[in-house]
Write a structure and sequence with these properties.
Strand order of the largest sheet: 1-3-2
Radius of gyration: 18 Å
Structural class: alpha+beta
Number of strands: 5
Order of helices and strands: EEEHHEEHH
Helix content: 25-40%
Shape: globular
Oligomer: single chain
């Protein structure tokens, strides 16, 4: 039985996964699902995952806040969704006390936070507006 971490999922080398995010192909298992034959344990007893069946990628839905009416909630949502972090403390720093300020002028790993967020947003939210308009 292979053991993997959710951050570095192993995939078969013969597949072409250059443009595909591997995390979209796996789902987290809870309760009795973790006892199934296709359950893959994560390292350090962090739980179990299972490869999704073909054609069933995850669809993530979330609230959208107005940048003008509720700027702090808007920037907090952007950071929570698209900025790599382990806790909410990572979404601000000593010089940037608000989410908006951290997004617009903060730096992490010698890169602008805005650039990281915008790149991840573009990567993961490609058809978000089209899906929302189709659901309405």
């Amino acid at each position: 039985m292979r053991v993997v971490t959710y951050d570095t999922l192993n995939v078969d080398e013969d597949k072409d996964n250059d443009d595909k995010d591997e995390k979209d192909e796996y789902r987290i298992l809870y309760g009795h699902q973790a006892k199934g034959t296709k359950a893959v344990p994560l390292q350090n007893d962090k739980g179990f995952i299972q490869k999704r069946t073909k054609g069933k990628c995850a669809v993530i839905r979330f609230l959208r806040f107005s940048e003008k009416k509720q700027p702090e909630k808007h920037y907090r949502r952007l950071l929570k969704l698209y900025f790599p972090h382990r806790s909410d403390k990572d979404l601000t720093n000593e010089t940037c006390l608000t989410y908006e300020h951290f997004y617009k002028s903060g730096r992490k790993w010698d890169v602008e936070v805005k650039r990281i967020v915008d790149n991840n947003k573009k990567r993961y939210e490609g058809y978000g507006r089209q899906v929302n308009s189709a659901l309405e």
